[in-house]
Amino acid sequence: xxxxxxxxxxxxxxxxxxxxxxxxxxxxxxxxxLPLQLMVLDDGGDPTAAANNTRRFVIEANADxxxxxxxxxxxxxMAAVANEVGVLHLGQSPFIVTPKLAKWSVSLPQPARIAAQxxxxxxKANGVKTVGFxxxxxxxxxxxxxxLATFGAPMGLNVVDEQRFARPDTSVVxxxxxxxxxxxxxxIVGASGTAAALPQLTLRExxxxxxxxHTNGTATDLIRIAGKAxxxxxxxxxxxxxxxxxxxxxxxxxxxxxxxxxxxGKYGPNTRNQFAANMYSAFLILQxxxxxxxxxxxxxxxxxxxxxxxxxxxxxxxVTTEGVYNFTENDRNGLDPRSRVLVTVKNGKFEVVR
Length: 354
Hints:
Elements: E1 2-7, H1 14-22, E2 30-31, E3 34-35, E4 37-42, H2 47-61, E5 65-67, H3 72-85, E6 88-91, E7 105-107, H4 112-125, E8 130-136, H5 139-152, E9 158-165, H6 173-181, E10 186-190, H7 197-205, E11 212-214, H8 221-226, E12 234-238, H9 251-267, H10 274-294, H11 302-314, E13 318-319, E14 324-325, E15 340-346, E16 349-352
Parallel strand pairs: 1-4, 1-5, 5-6, 6-7, 8-9, 8-10, 10-11, 11-12
Antiparallel strand pairs: 2-3, 12-15, 13-14, 15-16
């Protein structure tokens, strides 16, 4: 069975794509005796390249499953092709699965709605009333800004300034100065990957002392790039970043601790990250649905792909490193609030906020 995997191993989203590709070192190469052929292509963070890669997977390799992309724009491009050709797509970024994309695509990371609530709850508990927002000028930034307007405002969180920047930008000084001038109690950075560290660094360099909150698209690169400026930052993230905070008998804890041990054993201490975990989780899901589909049809056929799609919806409680998924016709993410955790940077490491 061929699995087409699109990742951003170059370009501005490489901090997200490289860990995803690294995770492939630890995934199975066969399921129920069926060999898996992994075809991996880099999109450089470009949605057009992601769409072209997806067509190559299907046309050249007759792929039965598609996994990717690393950020929202390429993932949306993949989803459009997947739903055009009828191939199961396991999205690796928190994109909004519209009805047009819902038949063949699901999104594995925690959506903004789930991750952001951890931020709002913490803000509310700590007396935050005014919020500054700085985020990407694309669909990812829009998701977080819209969620803040829809769900943060009713909690008394008033947005006093909004600024945007592009993923390749190398400076956000102008945007940060305008944010600081609005004197917000706290700031939300609606960005992901390496570029999420840029507002953090600039805010601290320009003297902002309030709390700064980040999305689940922020990886350990925040600490690596921002250094001491990352101290005290808050990140709403997936369970893999802090599985030790879960109960001892939690199945997700066992999986995440084991995966982190493998990953950090090869790539070094404190390299655990959600992007590697999302890729690994995709294969944990495949280990459940491929045996079911094999009872219905042979790989490489439209019947097999339909069987995979149906199995994804019919099977319950997919236990992974990131949470427990239950996909339905109306829920194409499948996670609940138990899949999130709020962490803060303390002494150069992430610690769970209790």
